Sequence to fold (358 residues):
Amino acid sequence: MTTLKVSSYAIFLLSISGIIYALVFNPADWIVYAISIVLIPTFILSLGLILMARVKKEEEDERRNEPFIGY
Amino acid sequence: MNLMANILLNVLIAFLIGSLLYGLQRKVMARIQTRPGPPIIQHLLHTLKFFIKESSFPYTAAMPFYIAIASMLCAIWVSAVIVGPVIEGSLLLFFGIYALQKIVEHNAGSSSGSPYGKLSCVRAVFSAAAEVPLFAVLVIIYLQTQTMVISDIINYQAVNGPLIFTIPLAALMFFVLILSKSPDSPFAITKGKDIVSGYETEHFGVLRGYLMISESIAWYMLLWVFLTVFIGPLGILGYLVGMVAISVLIAFINATTPLLNPNHSIMVQITFAFIGIVGSLVLMMVM
Fold:
């Protein structure tokens, strides 16, 4: 979970920096398209991964040992 | 306006209006079925709610493909917004986007490891076989206007009148394509209730919200393309009225028709495609 948290923050910062760069510096059109197609989705995903509720410490074991009912 | 700001604004508008139109559809369907139904804003609230819910990733999921494919769906529809309202580019690009979206449906189903997802994955291939012929509507549009570029098609209609009157069967084909993308449509075999939520069955929390954002953008974009290509140059009010009217009509169809089984769904879609292509060509030769 820590890895997920760290990578989410890293992707969030990267994507927000790219979007702000395109907003402020107005680079060539193809760069803006590339930034939009790649960084808008990663921005939304990373924001979601940061905002999502986490498992409480006391419930973690219960979740992990939940028997997998399978399909 | 700054290009990036323009893209961000259009993506935001597509998401908000798409979500509200989905909510409207559910409301209309409920009223037809004599239920009170959820508020129109419910779909939007659901989408946002999923972002703060606890998420879990199934053991059976093929990581990181399972997450990447959800990102790909979002990237595809952001691209559609760029090709559509932002640059009014080529319809061929839109066709590519739609074809990619079918591949994403297929892979989202297979990456989760769920049997419902896998069934949906197979059905996505089935439905692609029917929906891609429906996209032959582009050929009819090209034969009529001699262009694939949306801005040129708008100009053509400004001079010659809306295409819906000159190639009505092509408009019908595109309408069936839009209908196929509606979640409760008779053709929605990839998300049929018989396979729970299809390829989205194992996408919980954040990922479900993420998929819902992409789907709202997709809904807005399909309606935008239909109105732009078949009705012509419209103002903001024209687009809003058109989108609401099509969504209500589709809600009516959804509420009164059962979900078809995969074979019937494909046969009906292919029949529409056949009638649309042959009928349009005959009409063009006669008129």
About this structure: The radius of gyration of chain A is 18 Å. Chain A has three helices and no strands. Chain A has one domain: 2-51. Chain A has a mean pLDDT of 84.
